[in-house]
Write a structure and sequence with these properties.
By secondary structure, this protein is of the alpha/beta class. It has helices spanning 13-24, 49-57, 61-65, 89-96, 105-115, 162-167, 232-240, 247-252, 284-287, 296-308, 321-346, 351-365, 369-373, 377-380; strands at 6-9, 29-32, 44-47, 74-77, 83-87, 101-104, 121-122, 128-131, 139-143, 146-150, 152-155, 175-186, 195-199, 203-209, 215-222, 260-266, 275-276, 279-281.
C-alpha cells in the first residue's frame, strides 16, 4: 500500500480494533468518528476467549484480562432464584484455556485508543463513502477536509450503516427483534453472591461484576419498537422488582440518569458479501445480532483481525477482501441465527411453555460441566489467523 491510507468510518469497538490491527500490519490508517468524543455508549460487555485471543494478537488482551473479576458461581436462574444451570469462571478457564472477561466498554475503548498512534482517531469528523473503488482505482471518502482517496475503507458505522446502504442498496436492512434492552452500572456495598442471568416469561435480567466493585446490570424484554417509559428506572423496578436477589436490590441503586434503553435490531437477512471494491464492512454494519450470546463486540473484534492479517504495506487490499468475506460471512451468519434462537426461548410467555423450557434447561444443567461448556466450543474455540509480514 505504500503511503496510501486506510480509512475507517466509525470509532466504536470494531472500528478501533480494525485501526489497531491495520496499524500492527504497518498500514497507515485514520479513523473518522462522527461523535464529538469517544464517550462510550453502553455499560459493560463480555470478552469471550475468542475475542481475547484476537486482542492478544494486537497486544491489549492482558490489559483487559486484568480488569476481569472472577466469580465462583454463575449461570442461569428462574425469577424465584432456582438455578437451572450453573458453572464457575474457573471452570470456563480450565475448559477453554481462557476466561470470559467482563469489562466496562469504556475500558475497552481506552485500551484500543492508547495502543494507536496519536492523531489516528479524529472525533467530530463525519465521513461518507463516495466511491468504493476497484483494483484499478482507489476508493474515495468525503470528510471535512474534502474527498480523500484510500486503498482500503472499513465501514464500521454501526447497525444503520450508510456505508452498507451504499454498497448494497437492495438489502432490506435491520429488522426489529421484538426486544428492548436496559443497561446500567451500579456500585453496591458488597459484591453480589449470585451472578449470571435470570429468565422469566418474555424477559430476562443479567448481573455481571466488573472492576473496582462496580456491577453491570441489564435487562431485556419484549416490547413494541420505540416504546419508552416516563421513568425507565421505575419501569425496571416494575418489571423486575419481585425477582430474586440481587436483581431488584441492584436496580434500586441505579442512577435514573444513567440507565440506557435501546431497542434491539439485527440483520436477520445476511448480506451477499462483506466487501465490495476496496470497502469492507465489519461489526454491526455487516452482521448486527441480538445480544443473547454476548458475541456482538467479540465478532467485530474477530472481523478486524481477520481483515488485517493478510496485509502488509506492499499488498493491495482489493485482492484480499474476497478472502475476508469467505472467512467471516458463514461464521457470523451462524452466530446471528443462534442468537435469534436463544431470543426465541427468552420470548416464551405462556406459563406452560415457560415451564417446559425451564424443565429442559434444568435437565441440561444436570449434565457434567464439560458437556455444558462444550455447547459454546464452536464459538469460543476460534483462533485468529497468523498475520502476514507483521510490522
Amino acid at each position: 500500500m505504500g503511503k496510501r491510507q486506510a480509512i475507517v468510518i466509525g470509532g466504536g469497538i470494531g472500528g478501533l480494533t480494525a485501526a489497531l490491527a491495520l496499524h500492527r500490519q504497518g498500514v497507515p490508517v485514520t479513523v473518522h468518528e462522527r461523535a464529538a468524543s469517544l464517550e462510550p455508549v453502553g455499560a459493560g460487555l463480555a470478552l469471550a476467549p475468542n475475542a481475547l485471543r484476537a486482542l492478544d494478537r494486537l497486544g491489549v488482551g492482558d490489559r483487559l484480562r486484568a480488569l476481569a473479576t472472577p466469580y465462583p458461581a454463575l449461570g442461569l436462574r428462574r425469577p424465584s432464584g432456582r438455578w437451572l444451570a450453573r458453572t464457575s469462571s474457573s471452570a470456563v478457564e480450565a475448559y477453554f484455556g481462557d476466561t470470559v472477561a467482563a469489562v466496562a466498554r469504556a475500558d475497552v475503548i481506552a485500551a484500543l485508543v492508547d495502543a494507536l498512534p496519536a492523531g489516528t482517531v479524529r472525533t467530530g469528523s463525519p465521513a461518507e463513502l463516495v466511491r468504493p473503488g476497484d483494483t484499478g482505482s482507489p476508493a474515495v471518502v468525503r470528510t471535512a477536509d474534502g474527498e480523500q482517496p484510500a486503498a482500503l475503507v472499513v465501514g464500521a458505522d454501526g447497525i444503520r450503516s450508510a456505508t452498507r446502504g451504499a454498497l448494497f442498496p437492495r438489502h432490506p436492512g435491520p429488522r426489529y427483534s421484538g426486544f428492548t434492552t436496559w443497561r446500567t452500572m451500579v456500585t453496591p456495598a458488597r459484591p453480589p453472591a449470585a451472578v449470571g442471568e435470570v429468565w422469566g416469561r418474555g424477559r430476562l435480567a443479567g448481573v455481571v461484576p466488573l472492576a473496582d466493585g462496580r456491577v453491570y446490570v441489564y435487562g431485556a424484554a419484549l416490547a413494541p419498537a420505540g416504546e419508552r417509559a416516563a421513568s425507565e428506572h421505575a419501569e425496571l423496578l416494575r418489571r423486575y422488582g419481585d425477582w430474586c436477589a440481587p436483581v431488584p436490590q441492584l436496580l434500586a441503586l441505579a442512577d435514573p440518569e444513567r440507565i440506557l434503553r435501546h431497542d434491539v435490531w439485527d440483520l436477520a437477512d445476511p448480506l451477499p458479501a462483506y466487501h465490495h471494491g476496496r470497502v469492507a464492512l465489519l461489526g454491526d454494519a455487516a452482521h448486527a445480532m441480538s445480544p443473547f450470546q454476548g458475541q456482538g463486540a467479540c465478532q467485530a473484534i474477530e472481523d478486524a483481525v481477520v481483515l488485517a492479517s493478510p496485509l502488509s504495506p506492499g499488498d493491495d487490499p482489493a485482492t484480499t477482501l474476497p478472502g475476508y468475506t469467505a472467512a467471516r460471512l458463514p461464521r457470523t451468519t451462524a452466530i446471528v441465527t443462534g442468537s435469534r434462537r436463544i431470543g426465541a426461548l427468552v420470548a416464551v410467555r405462556s406459563p406452560a411453555a415457560a415451564l417446559l423450557r425451564d424443565t429442559v434447561l434444568a435437565l441440561g444443567g444436570l449434565l457434567p460441566t464439560r458437556a455444558l461448556l462444550s455447547r459454546s466450543a464452536a464459538t469460543y474455540d476460534w483462533q485468529p489467523p497468523a498475520p502476514r509480514g507483521a510490522a
